[in-house]
């Protein structure tokens, strides 16, 4: 039976140096060669995912920006489920400046970073793994990008307390208009309302004549909640957010270890019994 494996990246499949543990790589290769489907499901932008797929060529699909974009690696086609208006992005940018946050903007083809500060004290104790993928731009440049580009995600990055306050504010103001999600405790992602990893994966399951009973998922943050809830087996990483632990099949080890490979080896030993 073909199975469908979905992996979050930051804090899950990727180590803090942006590599995958060698034993986990071996497992990805084994699953790929066995004819199963593998998908990345992340809040990262598409261009960052494409770079990863070149290094680790085992993924059939790349679900990026929390489900806003679905990229088929084989056909090299991308489905976009929605965008943010220029007006709301300009307003969010003002709040980024007010709070001294890093502003991270995703388009279909590029990633941009803007901040009014050169240094952020809160970064000293944090492990943000994807900032090197972003093009640092000036305020004039970011305003030009907002005017001329299609925005698929706006993200605040700041200390967890600031992010929580921003979440309370924007969750209330944007309810039923945009999706507002805290990821990795120090990111606040704003996406089109229809965007969700689970929705994207459900569409891919249907495309390949599979069902959620054939889905195995791994994650660590609130943006993985519905993905793990959808899955037959949903595994939460060691430092997962409390809400994720509520729907996870099991809590496993951390992203620096071979825990994903170990978990899948145990699961696949009983594949016929579990998935018959």
Automatic annotation (TrEMBL):
<keyword id="KW-0378">Hydrolase</keyword>
<dbReference type="GO" id="GO:0000287">
    <property type="term" value="F:magnesium ion binding"/>
</dbReference>
<dbReference type="InterPro" id="IPR000150">
    <property type="entry name" value="Cof"/>
</dbReference>
<protein>
    <submittedName>
        <fullName>Cof-type HAD-IIB family hydrolase</fullName>
    </submittedName>
</protein>
<dbReference type="InterPro" id="IPR036412">
    <property type="entry name" value="HAD-like_sf"/>
</dbReference>
<dbReference type="Pfam" id="PF08282">
    <property type="entry name" value="Hydrolase_3"/>
</dbReference>
<dbReference type="InterPro" id="IPR006379">
    <property type="entry name" value="HAD-SF_hydro_IIB"/>
</dbReference>
<dbReference type="GO" id="GO:0005829">
    <property type="term" value="C:cytosol"/>
</dbReference>
<dbReference type="GO" id="GO:0016791">
    <property type="term" value="F:phosphatase activity"/>
</dbReference>
<dbReference type="InterPro" id="IPR023214">
    <property type="entry name" value="HAD_sf"/>
</dbReference>
<comment type="similarity">
    <text>Belongs to the HAD-like hydrolase superfamily. Cof family.</text>
</comment>
């Amino acid at each position: 039976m073909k199975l469908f494996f979905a992996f979050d990246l930051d804090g899950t499949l990727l180590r803090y140096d942006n590599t995958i543990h060698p034993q986990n790589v071996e497992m990805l290769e084994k699953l790929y060669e066995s004819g199963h489907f593998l998908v990345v499901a992340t809040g990262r932008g598409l261009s960052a995912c494409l770079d990863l797929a070149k290094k680790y060529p085992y993924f059939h699909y790349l679900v990026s920006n929390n489900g806003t974009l679905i990229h088929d690696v084989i056909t090299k086609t991308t489905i976009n489920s929605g965008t943010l208006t220029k007006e709301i992005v300009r307003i969010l940018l003002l709040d980024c400046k007010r709070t001294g946050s890093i502003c991270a903007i995703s388009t279909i083809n590029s990633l941009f970073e803007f901040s009014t500060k050169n240094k952020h004290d809160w970064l000293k104790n944090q492990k943000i793994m994807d900032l090197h993928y972003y093009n640092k731009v000036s305020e004039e440049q970011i305003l030009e990008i907002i005017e001329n580009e299609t925005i698929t995600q706006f993200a605040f990055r700041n200390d967890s307390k600031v992010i929580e306050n921003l979440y309370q504010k924007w969750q209330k103001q944007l309810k039923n208009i945009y999706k507002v999600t805290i990821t990795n405790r120090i990111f606040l992602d704003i996406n089109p309302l229809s965007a969700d990893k689970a929705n994207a994966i459900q569409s891919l399951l249907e495309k390949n004549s599979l069902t959620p009973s054939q889905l195995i998922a791994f994650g660590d943050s609130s943006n993985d909640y519905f993905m793990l809830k959808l899955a037959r087996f949903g595994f939460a990483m060691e430092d997962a957010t409390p809400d994720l632990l509520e729907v996870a099949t099991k809590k496993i080890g951390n992203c620096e270890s071979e825990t994903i490979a170990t978990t899948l080896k145990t699961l696949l030993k009983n594949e016929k019994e579990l998935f018959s």
